[in-house]
Design brief:
By secondary structure, this protein is an alpha/beta fold. The protein has one domain: Ribonuclease H-like superfamily/Ribonuclease H (Nucleotidyltransferase, domain 5). It is built from eleven helices and five strands; from the N terminus they run βααββαβααβαααααα. It has a five-stranded mixed beta sheet, sandwiched between helices. Strand 2 and strand 3 form a beta hairpin. Helix 1 packs across helix 2, helix 9 packs antiparallel against helix 10 and helix 10 packs antiparallel against helix 11. The model has no long low-confidence stretch (mean pLDDT 95).
Length: 280
C-alpha cells in the first residue's frame, strides 16, 4: 500500500506496437517490406506460432503510439480532474510521432512532478517510456533527476517509491494469482475491456485506426484512475463520502464530454460503469 496521496496525481496508460524500423534494423530486413510484413517477421522471431501469432515482444523494439492519463489536482480552490491524451482525438493533421508523445509527456512530467499511478507500470508502461526515450535520443533530465534523499523530492526510478505507484504490485500475488486490470476492475464495479483487447492494437494501427486506439487508451486510463480511487479508499485516504464525491467528478467529466461526436466512448463507458455497479 502507498503511504500518501499527493496533491497532483496522474493515472496513465500507454499503448504500443512493434516498431517496423526496429525490426528492419535488428533483423536486417529490406526497406521495401511493408510495415505489416515486418511486424509479422518480428512476431515470428519473437516466438509466434499458429496458437499465438502475435506474442508479447520486448518493449525496446516497440513504438509508443498513444498515451492517456487522468490528472487530479487538489488545491485550496478544490479538486480538478481532467483527461488528456497524446495525441488527442481527432488525429487528422496532428503530429502523431512517437518522439512528440515521449518528449511532451516526459517534459511535462518532469516539470509538474505528480504522483504517477499505473497498472503494471513499473515493468511495462514506465519502462517503455524510458527505453524508447533513450532509443530516440530524448533529453528528459527533469524527469530522470533523482533526489539525494527520498524525502527531498520526486523519484520515479525507485520501484517502490510513493511517487511511482504500480497498482498491480499492490493487488497482485504470484504467477496466475495476479489479476489483470480487466479482472480487478470489473469485480470492483469499474469498466474493464469494452470490446477491444490489447492484442487488437497492432492490427488497428496497421489499418490506420489511431483514433480508435486512443479511445481505447483513454478508457484504460479512466479505469486505472478509478481503481486507484478504490484502493485509496481501502487504504483510508478517502472516507465513504469523499470516495463517492471523487467518483462523481469522473462521472461529471464523462457526461460533460459525451455530447462530442469524437468522444462517443465516454457514453459507452458510463453505461458500462452503471451496469457493473448493479452487481456490487
Amino acid at each position: 500500500m502507498f503511504k500518501n496521496v499527493k496533491n497532483k496525481v496522474w493515472a496513465f496508460d500507454v499503448e504500443w506496437v512493434p516498431d517496423p524500423n526496429a525490426g528492419k534494423a535488428i533483423y536486417g530486413l529490406p526497406d521495401e517490406l511493408s510495415d505489416r510484413e515486418v511486424m509479422e517477421i518480428m512476431w515470428r522471431e519473437g516466438g509466434g506460432d499458429q496458437d499465438n501469432p502475435m506474442p508479447y515482444l520486448k518493449t525496446t523494439i516497440c513504438k509508443v503510439v498513444s498515451l492517456s492519463m487522468v490528472s487530479r489536482h487538489a488545491s485550496e480552490d478544490g479538486v480538478k480532474v481532467e483527461l488528456h491524451s497524446l495525441p488527442s482525438i481527432p488525429t487528422a493533421n496532428a503530429d502523431t510521432s512517437e518522439i512528440k508523445i515521449l518528449e511532451t509527456f516526459l517534459d511535462t512530467l518532469g516539470k509538474h512532478k505528480p504522483q504517477l499511478v499505473g497498472y503494471n507500470s513499473v515493468s511495462a508502461d514506465l519502462r517503455i517510456l524510458v527505453q524508447r526515450g533513450v532509443a530516440k535520443g530524448i533529453d528528459a533530465g527533469s524527469f530522470a533527476s533523482r533526489p539525494n534523499k527520498p524525502w527531498e523530492g520526486a523519484d520515479y526510478f525507485s520501484d517502490y517509491s510513493d511517487w511511482n505507484i504500480d497498482l498491480m504490485r499492490i493487488l497482485g500475488g504470484y504467477g496466475r494469482s495476479t489479476p489483470s486490470l480487466n479482472e480487478m476492475s470489473v469485480v470492483s464495479g469499474i469498466p474493464g475491456k469494452m470490446g477491444v483487447d490489447g492484442q487488437e492494437v497492432a492490427p488497428m494501427w496497421l489499418n490506420g485506426k489511431l483514433d480508435e486506439i486512443i479511445a481505447y487508451n483513454e478508457c484504460d486510463a479512466l479505469t486505472t484512475y478509478l481503481l486507484w480511487l478504490r484502493v485509496a479508499h481501502f487504504g483510508g485516504f478517502f472516507n465513504k463520502e469523499e470516495y463517492t464525491e471523487e467518483q462523481k467528478r469522473i462521472l461529471n467529466l464523462l457526461e460533460e464530454g459525451s455530447g462530442d461526436p469524437e468522444k462517443a466512448h465516454y457514453k459507452k463507458y458510463i453505461e458500462e460503469w452503471k451496469r457493473l455497479k448493479s452487481y456490487l
